[in-house]
Write a structure and sequence with these properties.
alpha+beta, Aspartate Aminotransferase, domain 1, 6-stranded antiparallel β-sheet, YdhG-like
């Protein structure tokens, strides 16, 4: 589900950044109807809105993906992404459980689409 605050955030981006963020928004939101978006940590973020067992909020189990634009690079931060197998979605894994996938432009994003789709579906399958 699209969020007007994310629309507002995107309207302030440079055109190449806006194009990439809009493309990713459409792509991620089509994967599953239970994926929604909002602004979290001052960035567009995606979360799972479906039913889940109770959990400690500090585990970030509901948070799927946070987008960060940093020094000309586009970082897709999966707060609990280390549980996604590297064979499905390659990225840098961190000890705190994050996985970060970096792309520099829309063409690079399109090249990893199928892996990104598989990684998100893998993440959803591990809920609860």
């Amino acid at each position: 589900m699209r969020d007007s605050k994310v629309d507002e955030y995107c309207s302030k981006l440079e055109s190449n950044e806006q194009e990439l963020v809009e493309y990713l928004r459409e792509f991620v939101l089509k994967i599953d109807s239970e994926i929604h978006e909002h602004i979290k940590w001052n960035s567009p973020s995606f979360f799972y809105a479906g039913e889940m067992e109770a959990f400690d909020a500090k585990e970030y189990k509901r948070d799927l993906l946070v987008l960060n634009l940093h020094r000309g690079k586009f970082l897709m931060v999966f707060p609990t992404g280390a549980k996604i197998a590297d064979t499905v979605l390659k990225g840098k894994n961190y000890p705190d459980g994050r996985k970060i996938v970096t792309v520099e432009n829309l063409e690079e994003l399109k090249k990893i689409e199928s892996n990104l789709n598989a990684g998100i579906l893998d993440w959803i399958s591990q809920i609860n």
